[in-house]
Automatic annotation (TrEMBL):
<feature type="domain" description="RecX second three-helical">
    <location>
        <begin position="106"/>
        <end position="147"/>
    </location>
</feature>
<dbReference type="Pfam" id="PF21981">
    <property type="entry name" value="RecX_HTH3"/>
</dbReference>
<dbReference type="Pfam" id="PF21982">
    <property type="entry name" value="RecX_HTH1"/>
</dbReference>
<dbReference type="Pfam" id="PF02631">
    <property type="entry name" value="RecX_HTH2"/>
</dbReference>
<feature type="domain" description="RecX third three-helical">
    <location>
        <begin position="153"/>
        <end position="198"/>
    </location>
</feature>
<keyword id="KW-0963">Cytoplasm</keyword>
<comment type="function">
    <text>Modulates RecA activity.</text>
</comment>
<feature type="region of interest" description="Disordered">
    <location>
        <begin position="1"/>
        <end position="58"/>
    </location>
</feature>
<feature type="compositionally biased region" description="Low complexity">
    <location>
        <begin position="11"/>
        <end position="27"/>
    </location>
</feature>
<dbReference type="InterPro" id="IPR036388">
    <property type="entry name" value="WH-like_DNA-bd_sf"/>
</dbReference>
<dbReference type="InterPro" id="IPR053925">
    <property type="entry name" value="RecX_HTH_3rd"/>
</dbReference>
<protein>
    <recommendedName>
        <fullName>Regulatory protein RecX</fullName>
    </recommendedName>
</protein>
<comment type="similarity">
    <text>Belongs to the RecX family.</text>
</comment>
<dbReference type="InterPro" id="IPR053926">
    <property type="entry name" value="RecX_HTH_1st"/>
</dbReference>
<dbReference type="InterPro" id="IPR003783">
    <property type="entry name" value="Regulatory_RecX"/>
</dbReference>
<feature type="compositionally biased region" description="Basic and acidic residues">
    <location>
        <begin position="28"/>
        <end position="45"/>
    </location>
</feature>
<feature type="domain" description="RecX first three-helical">
    <location>
        <begin position="60"/>
        <end position="98"/>
    </location>
</feature>
Length: 237
């Protein structure tokens, strides 16, 4: 339109002030420009008006749902998260009991899924898995039941697969490679006997030099020695 300054903001919701229609209109425009309007908060409420306190159970449920949206959680993990936010033990217990009833919290199912996922994905053995479940508040009986799904044969096969995969990149003399691979399996929770036998068998199949070294390894004697070192109360050199 002729005469309108380019870039001027017009229309409802954009004008800084209404058109001047005499002194009253001018004053109204100045008040709008200055922002002399009563402050209003979200949803039309006065920000200075005290808000009613939130229901503690509602807040507890919100905390749990946020935690569960990331990954499944144990009952103990959710209880810890609520305690950190100041939720009373009584309210937390009531909320968790309800979540148990509807199946949103199930430590047994959590433990089974954890064992399967961490063994297949990271190659962790039962000892390491038991430690992780304990750290997440799973009781001993529930953890033991979940760990029964991982038998000795499966554990030995996984140990051998881990060693075979590592041997593709590891370099060094056979004795150094042997110690390195046994150490890797030990950190993943494999018992000394399982770890030593897996590495010995893998070295025997790798090369003539490695096979010669492997023939000299007494897996049972080494396993017994390593087992003694693992016993509580024995000093570590």
């Amino acid at each position: 339109m002729a005469g309108r300054r380019r870039g001027a903001r017009t229309g409802r919701g954009w004008d800084a002030a209404p058109p001047r229609t005499g002194d009253a209109g001018a004053e109204a425009g100045r008040r709008a420009t200055r922002g002399d309007r009563p402050a209003r908060g979200r949803a039309g409420t006065d920000p200075e008006q005290p808000q009613p306190p939130r229901d503690e159970a509602e807040l507890a449920r919100e905390i749990c749902l946020r935690q569960l949206a990331v990954r499944p959680r144990t009952r103990a993990e959710l209880a810890t998260a609520m305690a950190r936010k100041g939720i009373s033990a009584e309210v937390a217990e009531r909320v968790l009991d309800r979540y148990d009833e509807v199946g949103m919290v199930d430590d047994a199912a959590f433990a089974r899924a954890w064992v399967s996922s961490r063994h297949q994905g990271r190659g962790l053995a039962r000892r390491a898995l038991a430690n992780e479940l304990r750290q997440r508040g799973v009781d001993g009986d529930t953890a033991s039941e979940a760990l029964e799904t991982l038998d000795e044969e499966t554990e030995a096969e996984t140990a051998r697969a881990l060693v075979d995969r590592k041997l593709r990149t590891v370099r060094g003399e056979p004795d150094a490679v042997f110690r390195r691979l046994v150490g890797m399996l030990a950190r993943k929770g494999y018992p000394p006997g399982v770890a030593i036998r897996a590495v010995k068998d893998a070295l025997a199949a790798q090369s003539a030099e490695a096979a010669e070294f492997a023939d000299q390894i007494d897996a049972d004697a080494l396993a017994d020695a390593e087992g003694d070192l693992d016993r509580p109360g024995r000093p570590i050199d």
